[in-house]
Amino acid sequence: MKKVLTYLLLVLTLSSVGYYLVLNAKVLGISPFLSMFYLMWCPALAALATYLIHDRSLAGVGWGLGKLQWLALSYFLPLAYGTIAYGAIWLTGLGLINGQYQFNFLSLVIVGTIINIAFAAGEEIGWRGFLAPELYKKMGYTASCLLTGVIWAVWHFPIIIAGSYLAKMPLLPQLLLLVVTLIAMSFVFSWLRLISGSVWTAVLLHASHNLYVQRLFDPMTLGSGPLTKYIAGESGLALTFVFLILAVIVWSQRKKLPGPVKL
User: Is 117 a domain residue?
Assistant: First the structure.
């Protein structure tokens, strides 16, 4: 586990600078966009450094594209589960459709996808390019997903506690739901990474999730009462519930994963 400890130490060190830059961007006169870009690339920088330190190679990241079917599934999956989660919100009246929301298809889908890939790659080269497969070799699928999810969630805590991210609900339920959601998401992200052998499945899934949840489904949803803030959003109960279902589905398919450790 020396490689994992090296990685976590590097993530903590690099991210500490990133948290400071994100939370003090205006005071420092730094672009919040660039500050967040650096923070999201800290897991990747830590992963690349760890591979070079311990393996003298970056081959373990999983640079190959793999099969098109996994890439396509990764990109379009957020549209599917977003439609289910937010559709349920709209149909039950727990949230209302924002009829005033408009978007430019070219800007949202093409430009938005490119930008979000650039950002998401920073996290996923770290979490799924290094951490998930490394833990999988040591701990098996279930334990590695649980631990990766907790680490992934805790990494977000500083900017959430500071009110710079996901600030729609009270802090405690926000943190608790984030942990549950990201653990569930880790089962899906890791399964696609491991079955495809490609880190790009995780990058596409993360980029597509951020794009369509943050720029399509959330802006299309208006509050209809005090419960909306707990139901909608990235760590809202609707998406959490859908991801728990997806986690159970991919967990049931864990024996299809390559490698000797699959529990």
Answer: yes
